[in-house]
């Protein structure tokens, strides 16, 4: 079966000159279309590091990551960027919105980058933001939004290109119960209706249990 993401024998150590911090070790993971997976684990165990490797934002120290059967270590920086734009949606632990752009422009950005016509990109983005209750905040910049609103904009940005895999790093960490349900609903809808895979890092066991499976990251590997 076609795996959206597959990684083999993945190892990673941060290397700041003299100090080496090993984080991941001999980690294997596969995810199919329409599957959902929660990753849990203590603070500092390497969950964000793992998602960064899966999304091609960083290169592993050992082992390899494949996205749609393409081995990232064999691709140029530009090819990885294109692969990510085509197949992945990324929700960061800290929203990483562009501060000088409006909510609407932030959400439309992935579509504009891949070359969609501006008016279509803005129309689609405006509809998605309205669907998640932000119709009156389209022209606000991140600094003019609440923490939960920023996170919802970041989620809309990750969903806008209908990714085949969504990588989400504690996407509901800043949200109240109502927004958590809404955001979770959006992600699960994409997962179930569009058969996109979902890899979600969370500290919330109630959320983890809603996924098809959940794994714990411990001593650098998934158990
Ligand atoms: N740039 C860096 N240089 C050195 N060590 C780092 C760097 N970034 C992270 N680390 C270390 O790597 C480990 C894994 O960090 P990571 O951010 O992946 O953890 P996490 O599981 O996402 O934690 P949290 O639940 O708190 O978000 C941590 O112990 C951290 O101290
Ligand atoms: Mg983290």
Automatic annotation (TrEMBL):
It comes from Bathymodiolus azoricus thioautotrophic gill symbiont. Its main location: membrane. The gene is lolD. It comes from the Bacteria. Belongs to the ABC transporter superfamily. Lipoprotein translocase (TC 3.A.1.125) family. The lineage of its organism: Bacteria, Pseudomonadati, Pseudomonadota, Gammaproteobacteria, sulfur-oxidizing symbionts. It is a peripheral membrane protein. The keyword Transport applies. Part of the ABC transporter complex LolCDE involved in the translocation of mature outer membrane-directed lipoproteins, from the inner membrane to the periplasmic chaperone, LolA. Responsible for the formation of the LolA-lipoprotein complex in an ATP-dependent manner. GO terms for biological process: lipoprotein localization to outer membrane; protein localization to outer membrane. Keywords: ATP-binding, Cell inner membrane, Cell membrane, Membrane, Nucleotide-binding, Translocase, Transport. InterPro entries: AAA+_ATPase, ABC_transporter-like_ATP-bd, ABC_transporter-like_CS, ABC_transpr_LolD-like, LolD_lipo_ATP-bd, MacB-like_ATP-bd, P-loop_NTPase. GO terms for molecular function: ATP binding; ATP hydrolysis activity; transmembrane transporter activity. It is found in: Cell inner membrane. This is Lipoprotein-releasing system ATP-binding protein LolD. GO terms for cellular component: plasma membrane. Its EC number is 7.6.2.-.
